[in-house]
Amino acid sequence: MSEQNPEEVPENTPGAGENICRNCEGTGTVDGGKCPDCDGTGKVIVPLGGA
Ligand SMILES: [Zn+2]
Question: How far, in Å, is the centroid of ligand 1 from the Cα of 51?
Fold first, then answer.
């Protein structure tokens, strides 16, 4: 069990950004199981250029 704060995500990673997983809203859990989108981390790495 980790106690990471999903609100505090560094956004200055070169070449990639860490975003809160929208599938599980940062909880890492969906329907009582591990979120397949973020593999249970609650975060997803997305490439820059989406803005
Ligand atoms: Zn997720």
Answer: 21
Give the chain's largest Cα–Cα span. Answer: 34
Q: How far is the CA of 39 from the centre of ligand 1 (A)?
A: 6
State the Cα–Cα distance between residues 35 and 40, nearest whole angstrom.
5
Q: Could you tell me the distance, in angstroms and rounded to a whole number, from the CA of residue 14 to the centre of ligand 1?
A: 22
Q: How far is the CA of 32 from the centre of ligand 1 (A)?
A: 12
25-37 residue pLDDT tens? 999 999 999 999 9
Cβ contacts of 46 within 8 Å, gap of 6 or more: 16, 17, 18, 19
